[in-house]
């Protein structure tokens, strides 16, 4: 069982990231997934997170208890959830938005900046999904691409797939640097 938490603030696509990952794992990789979300009353700007539990077998408890992967897209998200990360867990951050001081394995990506370079910072979460997919290997790239196609409006599919692949390529590069 793998426990993942995406965290940030409202408007960053944190909840949608959890939905895309859950759909990719459960429908396209034919495994099991649960997703829960947590957000404040604010539509944008308030703290939010999505918790995804992934498994090859049925999931008996659908909530994250000790995180294997924390994807933090805001400083508040990092501060709030870093302590839940397992000792052998992996921290993934947007380096332009989060200053991490963690002894956990950490990977960083300028996902918001990369999204802006693609023309729209609202797709920073999809850049991050690509990066997460490459780093974690808990879901196939093909499943994520299929899930993105089914999760975003038709006119934004190409942009989102470019964002995903940009993040994925950055993750592949980071992994090859580590080896």
Could you explain the architecture of this structure?
The protein has six helices and six strands; from the N terminus they run E-H-E-E-E-H-E-E-H-H-H-H. It has helices spanning 14-28, 75-81, 111-117, 124-136, 141-151, 157-178; strands at 2-9, 32-39, 47-55, 67-72, 85-94, 105-109. It is of the alpha/beta class and 179 residues long. The chain has a single domain (2-178), classed as Pyruvate-ferredoxin Oxidoreductase, domain 3. A six-stranded mixed beta sheet has the order 2-3-1-4-5-6, sandwiched between helices. Strand 2 and strand 3 form a beta hairpin.
Instruction: Tell me the fraction of residues in β-strands, as a range.
Output: 25-35%
The average pLDDT is: 92
Name the poorly predicted regions: none
Query: Rg, please?
Result: 15 Å
CATH class: Alpha Beta
Oligomer: single chain
Give the CATH superfamily: Pyruvate-ferredoxin oxidoreductase, PFOR, domain III
Helix and strand run: EHEEEHEEHHHH
Main sheet specs: 6 strands, mixed
Q: Biggest sheet, strands in spatial order?
A: 2-3-1-4-5-6
Number of helices: 6
Helix share, percent: 40-55%
Kindly report how far apart the N and C termini lie: 26 Å
Shape: globular
Topology:
Elements: E1 2-9, H1 14-28, E2 32-39, E3 47-55, E4 67-72, H2 75-81, E5 85-94, E6 105-109, H3 111-117, H4 124-136, H5 141-151, H6 157-178
Parallel strand pairs: 1-4, 4-5, 5-6
Antiparallel strand pairs: 1-3, 2-3
Helix pairs in contact: 1-5, 3-4, 4-6, 5-6
What attributes characterize this protein structure?
179 residues; alpha/beta; Pyruvate-ferredoxin Oxidoreductase, domain 3; 6-stranded mixed sheet; 6 strands; 42% helix; globular
């Amino acid at each position: 069982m793998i426990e993942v938490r995406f965290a940030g603030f409202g408007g960053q696509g944190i909840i949608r990231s959890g939905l895309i990952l859950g759909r990719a794992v459960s429908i396209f990789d034919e495994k099991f997934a649960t997703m829960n979300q947590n957000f404040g009353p604010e539509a944008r700007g308030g703290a939010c997170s999505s918790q995804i539990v992934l498994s090859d077998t049925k999931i008996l408890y659908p909530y994250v208890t000790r995180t294997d992967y924390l994807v933090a897209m805001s400083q508040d998200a990092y501060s709030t959830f870093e302590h839940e990360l397992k000792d052998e867990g992996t921290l993934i951050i947007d380096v332009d938005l989060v200053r991490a001081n963690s002894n956990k394995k950490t990977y960083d990506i300028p996902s918001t900046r990369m999204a802006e370079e693609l023309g729209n910072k609202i797709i920073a979460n999809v850049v991050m999904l690509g990066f997460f997919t490459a780093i974690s290997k808990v879901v196939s790239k093909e499943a994520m691409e299929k899930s993105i196609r089914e999760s975003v409006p038709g006119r934004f599919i190409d942009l989102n797939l470019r964002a995903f692949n940009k993040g994925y390529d950055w993750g592949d590069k980071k992994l090859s640097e580590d080896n």
